[in-house]
Design brief:
Glutaredoxin, transferase activity, Glutathione S-transferase Yfyf (Class Pi), Chain A, domain 2, 9 helices, Glutathione-S-Trfase_C-like, transferase, alpha/beta, Glutathione S-transferase, Thioredoxin-like_sf, globular
């Protein structure tokens, strides 16, 4: 069961026996962790970090996430039994996979493949798609050079992903993994990034395949009503049905 709180009253809820606490806002990086917590079937509570109001700069949150970015988590039962704070969505995914022994391959070779594509998302798709989204939708004045640069780079990255998915059912091989959980939230926003899937049939297949997973849907739906951007019409239409 998920319990929503705000940043001001979350400390009263934290005890040594509490579930994982997620600091979250409905963005692609936030979805990565909410989806993972649902997929791992881990109990969790949520503190909403309203990035539009500057909650990420609150002193209490900076103690958990020094980079003043969400998502972050507090696990009251860390590796040594003591509470542990984690920031950076990729690090959180790796931590949860190691904690549970799920969605992280069955051999060192499989784990290497998963880590490789996880890093690809963190170093490529996330930053480039984020910049594309900003310059195409939110920049106060249009800057054609920036729009074209990031739109083109996202198209290149999705071409890489499409070619990879032509070889395997999931991103890092034949099994669903944290690499898929990391990439799907960003790739699902392809419409707002002004991309086309007409020439990327394998990416289109994979997006729909993952959307059929109940845990992914539940993680994606967390506080979805707070998200102003509704450009992902293929997801929004499904929410309405």
């Amino acid at each position: 069961m998920v319990q929503l709180t705000n940043l001001r009253n979350h400390e009263a809820l934290m005890t040594a026996q509490d579930p994982i606490h997620l600091y979250y806002w409905p963005t692609p990086n936030g979805w990565k962790v909410s989806i993972a917590l649902e997929e791992f079937a881990l109990p969790y509570e949520v503190t909403l970090i309203d990035i539009g109001k500057g909650d990420q700069f609150a002193p209490g949150f900076l103690e958990i996430s020094p980079n003043n970015r969400m998502p972050a988590i507090t696990d009251p039962n860390g590796p040594d039994g003591a509470p542990i704070n984690l920031f950076e969505s990729g690090a959180i995914l790796q931590y949860l996979a190691r904690k549970t022994g799920q969605f992280y391959g069955k051999s060192p070779r499989e784990q290497i493949a998963i880590d490789q594509w996880l890093m690809w998302q963190m170093g490529g798709v996330g930053p480039m798609a984020g910049q594309a989204h900003h310059f195409l939708k939110y920049a106060p004045d249009p800057i054609p050079y920036a729009q074209n640069r990031y739109r083109t780079e996202v198209a290149r990255l999705y071409g890489v992903l499409d070619r990879q998915l032509a070889k395997s059912e999931y991103v890092a091989g034949d099994s669903y993994s944290i690499a898929d959980m990391a990439i799907w939230p960003w790739a699902s926003l392809w419409e707002g990034q002004e991309q086309s899937l007409d020439d990327k049939p394998h990416l289109a297949r994979w997006l729909k395949l993952l959307w059929e997973r109940p845990a992914l849907r539940k993680g994606r739906a967390l506080s979805a009503d707070l998200r102003k951007d509704k450009s992902d019409t293929w997801v929004q239409d499904d929410f309405k049905s």
